[in-house]
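ugh finaly. both done.
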Amino acid sequence: MAEHGNKATPRSGDKHPKVDISLLQTFHLVARTGSFSAAARELAISYQSAANHVRRLEQIYGARLIEAEKGSRRITLTPQGKALHASLGDELETILSRLTVLLHDVRSVLRVGVPQALFHHFFPAILRAFRLEAPDIELAFFERDTTLEKMMMAGALDAAVSERSFSHPGITQHLLGSYRLALVYPQDWPVSAFAADHSPPELGFFRDRPFVTYEAGQMVRTSALDYLTRVNGAAPRVSTSASGSTSVTRLIEAGLGYGVVPEWCAGPAGGRTAKIVLDEMEPMKLWFAHSAFLGTNRFIRLLHRSCQTTITGEAQPGHGGD
């Protein structure tokens, strides 16, 4: 962070002055509401206490953060105050939201977001591994896809497993591995047989067939549309979209179209569908994400290790547990 104004002189032996989070919370609310009185009401403290919190923070920060005219209840942020408020914004909201939940929960709960297909395929085994070391922790799962980053930023999730790479600085991600996608179609469709060299049939057969896929914004849909448009020279004819892999594969089994799904969702050989593994398509990466301030939490580390060993068969040093 760039320095503004004169530096505060830390106490002897302190490289970084210790800051009470209540000071940051008060400053954040004063800056957001535009007055000490509004922040004081929200925090259920006196006007003078709110003002004292901000003055103490200014002493630690080493610069004036707020200007208040005499006789006026409104305040303005100094350039230093604007810079500090902007840098605290999202991350402080996330921390305060999570602390509120922790203080009100009698039991320990870990809230995890994961797309439906990943949950169905991987998480029974992940849960078995996690339960061996943490039998009493409640895991609350949210089967989501497109909203995972937003939920983590809002403090509604502690961790997530997803194909998405999140960009928010308050979220830490670790690469777990990758998986292949497969084109799945009804078994009775007259697709040409595989050639003698075992190369797959031409995908042009599917160009004008109805395409069953995921709802807009989901990573598998986006990747599949890009790939099929490139190899066939035309975008697939999307006929139906659904939110989860179970729904997509059921529609394909019913003969309503073809689709691109994770390879493990394709169903067994000899069933109502057939598949073509798309080896030339870039594999989908899998990420484990958690709130940055929970990086040392033993249950977050245990969940990461359980995901790592289940999905790739090996734990990465430094992130797997205590």
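ok and the 2nd:
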Amino acid sequence: MALLQGVLVLQLVRVKGSSYRYHVVRSDGLPDEPLTAFIEEQRHCLAEGSVSLYTRELLAFLNWSLSDPIAVRNAWTVLGSTAEVRQLVLQYLTVAASCKVAMRPDQLGLKVGYVNETSGTHINTRAFLCALRRFYDFLIERSDYTEANPLAITGYSAAVRELHRSRHAAMREIAGRNPMPAASGVDAPSDIRLSSNYFRCAGREWLPKSIDDPSFPSTVYKAGREYGWGLREFCIVRTLRGTPMSSNLIRDHYWRPALRAAGIHAHPHQARHWFVTNALRNIEATASGEQDQARRKEELIRYMKWRSGEKMLHAYEHVDRETRFITKTLPAIHAEMKRMERKAGNAGAVPPAMRDTRKSSSARALDPDLALLTGVQA
């Protein structure tokens, strides 16, 4: 397969006048035939938007697999054995995509990987896994890959047959008959969710993206003016409330082109994050007391039309506290640690083996430098 021959970059190119609308081009300028054929086949099966999404996630993984030092050192390739490809995907999900993957048995007793996205995940995990499974199905059908699909569970069909056999046997033992179809409504629906996927998206840790930048609105307005926004677009961006225009129309034809031209990377929904972040800061800074703060936060919940208001507020406040610790508290701690290191260096540090460790715990607790770092009062 061409993509394994020392290629470092794969790019998607739209070609006019070709029977294949999209070509995957290698760094030597030649098209990668299997990938190009795969994308063309997906165009006949999926919506255009899904094809673009799947292609983007697939190419990102393939390019990464050719340069990741651990994958290179272990000789993991996309055409390796089923076990090697699974290790390669696991490495990509945990390291490159910042996901958390837990390997454990599913309801059939088969070992699978449950993938949880985190706040640091910047890929579409579901689209990536779906695209990669379809890609291996395509390669197997063409005989370009002779192993079992790495994204499918080995032994899944046998496990399902055993489950149905056991269920039928149990029903005959209890009710003297076989189970009825689910559509009949006679038997209680089964709570077992079967899946043949080796990697499964288990959940998403949603956290709002706090935007602590007072100039964010003016930056967006400036980009809009330079792009040629009219009064209608400015009103929509300012209100961020319901309008007759669809969100896709605003995003694709006004917001995204204007910000891209200005070199700004921001989703329209980030304007809501900016508003909430600054509203909470304003409430905490100007509230006359705890009751006034609680009342104004309740007003914010109603204004934002949140269904789970307390949960949303907790999520924003958690991000805000974490951001403030990283940007303000942590630098101060590091600066104090460096000061202490310089002080110890100037005075001549005593090797650990020669230090007197017989001091009482009370003497250590009263050390002023330690108290400053830990917050313990001397």
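summary for the 2nd one i guess: Residues 309-347 form the longest helix (39 residues).
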